[in-house]
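Give me the fold.
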Amino acid sequence: MKKYCVIKMIVILIVSLLILEGCVTRPSALTKFYLLSPLAISEVEDSDKAGEIFMTIGVGPVHLPEYLDRPEIVTRINPNELKLAELDIWAEPLQVNFTRVLVENISRLLSTEPVAVFLWGASPQIDFQIDIEVVRLDGDIAGKAFLIAQWSILDSANKSILFSKKSQYTESVSGTGFSALVAAQSRMIGALSLDIAEAIKSLHR
């Protein structure tokens, strides 16, 4: 009887460990990672917005609201309630991803190299600095995505504001799930990039 009890306890322990291992590893196996995407080269060419402007542009700093400073993708349930995804997260800090996509978009739209990312403390030789304050970047995975941003173009030499605008964008989420939401957010960043590129062109004429 004693031997039977020992064997029973060992079996229970093994089963418990297997269940515990499954609970620990299952979420990580289901976790999905997302990145914003830049405009495709074909989209830039088809828009007939590309031009030959030779200058250096500093993009940044780009400020995001605190509620977006987290790995989880944020969706909005109503004006006063947000939801954090459990297993759908950004592959890198959103501020870093947003800035890089913006830089790549503007570079393609203006057909100019280099477009430099402005770094505090550095002193790159740039013609224009683009300062961006993102007010809102979220949406509903089965509805619409929203981007609100206050942005300015500054003269790099004296930091005077040459152009300033508050832009609002809305995109339908074409599909369900977080992939469709992130794709819609990427399209809105593309629209923002286009507006910034057009403003730079007008200043450079």
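Helices lie at 2-30, 41-46, 94-110, 178-204.
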